[in-house]
Amino acid sequence: MNNLNRNMGTFSLIMVGLGSIIGSGWLFGAWRAAQIAGPAAIFSWIIGMIVIGMIALSYSELGAMFPEAGGMVKYTQYSHGSFLGFIAAWANWIAIVSVIPVEAVASVQYMSSWPWEWAQWTSALVKEGTLTGKGLLVATALLLVYFFLNYWTVGLFSKANSIITIFKIVIPGLTIGALLFVGFNSGNFTAGDSIAPSGWASVLTAVATSGIVFAFNGFQSPINMAGEAKNPGKSIPIAVISSILIATVIYVLLQVAFIGAVDPSAIVNGWSHLNFNSPFADLAIALGINWLVIVLYADAFVSPSGTGITYTATTARMLYGMEKNKYLPSFIGRLHPLYGIPRQAMFVNLGVSLIFLFLFRGWGVLAEIISVATLISYLTGPITVMTLRKIGKDLYRPLRLKGLSIIAPLGFIFASLTLYWARWPLTGQVLFIILIGFPIYFYYQAKNNWKDFKKNFKAGAWMIVYLLSMVVISWLGSEKFGGLNVIKYGWDMLLITVLSLFFYAWALKSGIESESLDEGRKVNDALRAAQKERVNEK
């Protein structure tokens, strides 16, 4: 299998999932979603949960089948070869590694609005939503804290994350209770003569760009940590689904509390004019809930830092997985002989995190990029799981989902629609970021003398046509989603649904029994043997 320590139980993995989902998203997501969709933002969270839930179910079966470090970047290579595997892995890694600096940015942004006289110097950390030089130094220090908490041992990571995550659940609960009790204005929900004053299209856009997809992205952390799970067949699906459901309840209640706590005078000109530096803390100050102000400013370090710590661990496993797929230099995949963690991969991710930090200094910009890159990487999950049911019937499946033949295509359609809802030109910009990785793939193909290149390229060609089609539809689509309005609202989503089914069918037919699947079978066989051993012990 691999040499990583298997010492994480179901509870620890649920904490990993929640620790990833409840990060800076809860501190900023409710405000940003309300800005875009008004009170109807509540529905955005529920739609987001359904979209991600459908995709997560596919990945749960895969994670239970192949419990290995960085599994999210390996599965697609098993079913469609190296070309599509690289696209999925690259998009996923871009989305996840950029979360680490965005969490540091979130902490610094909350810190910049500290109201105390002794803390006036913090106001110089952020200017017009962008980190200053001083702010970058503080954010860099936070990145180093995330790094060293993971540097020595998985055990330390697991213990620290569980404690932090419990804290992260308690604080949103206190915030919800305090805001509902002290300053709840029920009239806010119909201000502007409608629960959706910006139209229902804005509810869909909020799913993709307000930080909702960005927040739920954390469901994959337990899957990437599957190599350290004691009983992955049982604990991975429980951890993934449980963390999504618990987080949804928290986020919906936070959105309700936020909408109700806003001063009605602040939304006279519409929800889009609602601006806060530190959303929940600013509301607590306005309502005179001083104890909550202090708690929120403290949690502005704890919640994002918990997610930053989690993602520092999981992104190292992702690079470890990409190296095993022969996308990256071999030194990145070396495990520390004592601690069993890929330290070189951690150093690479630290460097990339610093680059993202210095290039994109605002929470909103990074959250949008992360969300769209994430959706591109998710597209392959439903494809892979169904393809492996066809070409890998011999594989041991601790979890075999009923109704997956319906769940998988729905997951692909929902991911495609959400990608479109992100609005033009963001869809095109993120596609360009994905294309930047291609020279790396071609370089390592050349080093490998282009072995099986034609076969692998053919298996992944559908994705290139799909992405180009999505860009064109986004450009020509409804003005409600930033397009030229050549394709009218309603017809645009019908077109995407039909095309998604076409590309889904093409993708399933493109599946191949790649060389990498042999490696996956070794992992799967070891899992089967471990399960038999557990049964015999009983």
- What is the count of helical runs? 22
Structural class: mainly alpha
Radius of gyration: 22 Å
Give unreliable regions as ranges: 1-5
What level of helicity do the residues show? 55-70%
Outline: globular
Query: What's the assembly state of these chains?
Result: single chain
The tally of strands reads 2
Major sheet summary line: 2 strands, antiparallel
Terminal Cα separation, in Å? 23 Å
Spatial arrangement of strands, main beta sheet: 1-2
Describe the structure.
This protein has helices at about 10-20, 25-35, 40-65, 75-95, 100-110, 135-150, 155-180, 200-210, 210-215, 220-225, 230-260, 280-285, 290-325, 345-360, 365-380, 380-390, 405-420, 425-435, 440-445, 455-475, 490-510, 515-535, and strands spanning about 125, 130. The relative contact order is 0.19. The chain contains 22 helices and two strands. Helix 6 (about 135-150) packs antiparallel against helix 14 (about 345-360), helix 7 (about 155-180) runs parallel beside helix 11 and helix 7 (about 155-180) packs antiparallel against helix 13 (about 290-325). With about 550 residues, the chain is mostly helical. The protein is about 70% helix and about 0% strand. The chain has a two-stranded antiparallel ribbon. Residues about 1-5 have low confidence and may be disordered.
